Amino acid sequence: MTELGDKLKAARREKGLSLDDLQQITKIQKRYLVAIEEGNYSVMPGKFYTRAFIKQYAEAVDVDSTQLFADFDSEVPESQQEVVEQEQSRARKKATPLATHSVGGQNSSRNRFFDILPKILIALFILFILFIIWYFVFARDNDKNVATPNDSEQTVKVNDETGSSTKKSDDAKKNDDSAAKKKAADDKAAEKKKAEDKKKADEKDKKMAIEKGQTSGNATSYTVSNADKLSLEISASGGDTWIGVSTAAGANIYNGIVKDGSSSDEIDAKDNKTVSIVVGNAPVTTVKVNGEKIELAPTLVKQVLTIKLDDSGSDSSSDSASSSSSDGENAQ
């Protein structure tokens, strides 16, 4: 640490500047600013730059650089000799081109060649681009015209031999028979597909219906038509409800409490055509059969619901479709 460095560092701190701030102001690398404060001038790029950096540092923190150099003359490296050497080096560099031109002859010709070399390269590049364009526009079109023969140049060979004609006639008959069989098979497949599509359309047109029967006491019956099976979903809103689901024979399918705001998992009646549902708290309970909500008695708290699947319609339609399909196949 030197007295010059201490003075500059104190001035910097007095202005509230960090080394990073000072680096932004002076554009001097931070490591050089640290070297000035520490008096470590050996890391500087040269004596001339040392004095220049100290001067910029001083001006940035409002310290008189002239007075600073006068007060600490012994600490600041002398740069006069370095300035003279730098000026001499510049003079030698300026004189070198003049000496080269003065020689004339070979060096002069070489310089002129390098002057026109970029122009030669540009001209060659332009010629290359023009060749590429010519090739793709004209040369390839000519190749296509040569490769494609005219219709007038094509010849058709005809074999007039009797044996060959007979063989062609037999082959034609075989092809006709194969085509007829294929057409018959395609017609049969198309008719079968048409019957299947009609069956699917008829089944799709049938909409499931739930008919409410009579209510006797707390028991109500319902009939479900146009459906293949019974699927139940029970939910509660406004309170808990107890649910019991059993078959017509009394076998238990589901038994549990459905909490307020929740619903049961899907209850599949499987192959059972009739199920019985006991609802413990009907006013807060919603019962859905195959996704459709059924109407409960409005005044009863505990209710017994009997759900019956009427599959007579679907069976008859299936039998009818099967019969029509069989008739079509027999007719074919």
Topology:
Blueprint: H1 3-14, H2 19-26, H3 30-38, H4 47-60, H5 65-71, H6 80-103, H7 105-147, H8 162-205, E1 209-216, E2 219-225, E3 231-236, E4 241-247, E5 252-258, E6 267-268, E7 274-279, E8 285-289, E9 292-293, E10 303-310, H9 312-331
Parallel strand pairs: 2-10
Antiparallel strand pairs: 1-2, 3-6, 3-8, 4-5, 4-7, 7-10, 8-9
Helix pairs in contact: 8-9
How would you explain this protein's 3D organization?
Residues 314-332 have a biased composition (Low complexity). The chain is of the alpha+beta class. Among the domains are: 3-82, Orthogonal Bundle (434 Repressor (Amino-terminal Domain)), CATH 1.10.260.40; 109-146; 209-316, Immunoglobulin-like (Sandwich). Helices cover 55% and strands 17% of the residues. The chain is built from 9 helices and 10 strands. It has helices at residues 3-14, 19-26, 30-38, 47-60, 65-71, 80-103, 105-147, 162-205, 312-331; strands at residues 209-216, 219-225, 231-236, 241-247, 252-258, 267-268, 274-279, 285-289, 292-293, 303-310. Strands 1-2-10-7-4-5 form a 6-stranded mixed beta sheet. The radius of gyration is 53 Å and the shape is flat.
